[in-house]
Write a structure and sequence with these properties.
Shape: globular
Low-confidence stretches: none
Distance between the termini: 38 Å
Strand order of the largest sheet: 2-3-4-1-5
Strand content: 15-25%
Helix content: 40-55%
Length: 443
Amino acid sequence: MKRDLERDLFNWKECKDRLPLLLRGARQVGKSYIVEEFGKKEFKNIVIVNFEFRPELKQCFTTLDPVEIINKLRLLTGEAIEAEKTLLFLDEIQECPNAIMALRYFKEKYSKLAVIGAGSLMEFVLNSSNFKMPVGRIQFIYLEPLSFGEFLTASGNELLRHYLREIRLNSVFDDVAHQKLMDLLRIYLIVGGMPAVVKEYLESKNFLNCQRIQNSLLQTYRNDFGKYANFSEHKYLQKVLDEAPRLVGNRIKYSNIDADSKSRDIKQAVNLLKLTSIIYPVYATTASGLPLEAQIKEMKFKLNFLDVGLMQNACGLQAEITLTNNFIQINSGAVTEQFIGQELRANSDSYLKRGLFFWARDKKNSSAEVDYVIAVDSLILPVEVKAGKTGTLKSLKLFIEEKKSLFGIRFSQEKLSLHDKVLTLPLYMVEHVKRLAQEAGNL
């Protein structure tokens, strides 16, 4: 299954001043698969050190000297490890924090050997108080579930994806292509972007089988609780994992997750699941300048879930219902708000940690809220997600007026247009929002 991140991995390989790479992302988004496929294609050989399957290999990292480490690995694995020819893949690297520490010395003393580390729960090591991050000696890169564009490629619809790449603001949108893309989007909102689920759908076209795999993935996340939390915290993690998919699009109050638990316990569970990348906070920003991160209010936030297919499964929405023409309006439009947030994450710079933001003005008789705020070059743009084919854009226009924005963006079922300071994009075109916004900004 081809992933867009392969381009970034290839560019990393060709970089003169290459740093060791740490691939970050939630469990089961395809980190190991993409590295292994990349290694087979681009190197003479790939040596995989999986610290979970082979814990005895941790002893190779009792030293931080790359030469000693490589010699020990050669002895224990029996495999050749050659500079400029081998990719050394340290999988489940969170199981061996010393291996992360050693990466800085690979850069300094063994820079011609390509090294990639990956691990689903790596964030807990990187954020622990007793871990010293080797700043400036490691490159980070992030992998998300398959985007809708990647789903088009995987499902044999690369021509449609190419068609969207060629679309300009003055293009005449083909009705047949639009309908086909909306039909594929309906499927994607059920299947989502988790690689195992996408693979099952492409092979069997059986939504029930897909739902069973989604159930299994959700159970895997529950089974992981014991790896990063003590037993007393499990019940709070379970409550947040159960409720988060239903709360997408709503401002989070800890009492709404569980009125019977203390807020500090729920807050701790939210923070833990945030580190696993199962949930992503969408922070309120004043949107008064760049970067948007500098303008956030940490106590005011919404949630975006890891994957729209998992979200729908966790909410108990049946595939037959979501295939109807009104699928976008299910759950008060939360499904589409989840999808747009997920797409914004997936299509952002893979070398930067994905931040999501919204804007709200809480004033008596003059409240307003836009679903997302994005930055395109120097422009700060409000984004509204419209579930139905109708609906006002009061908050969007208020933002444009108050923040002096050139225009705002609306994602909906409608075709592409630019009218009255509103750039309307069909839901399936998030991958192209930056390009089209730049074009609109130059008009």
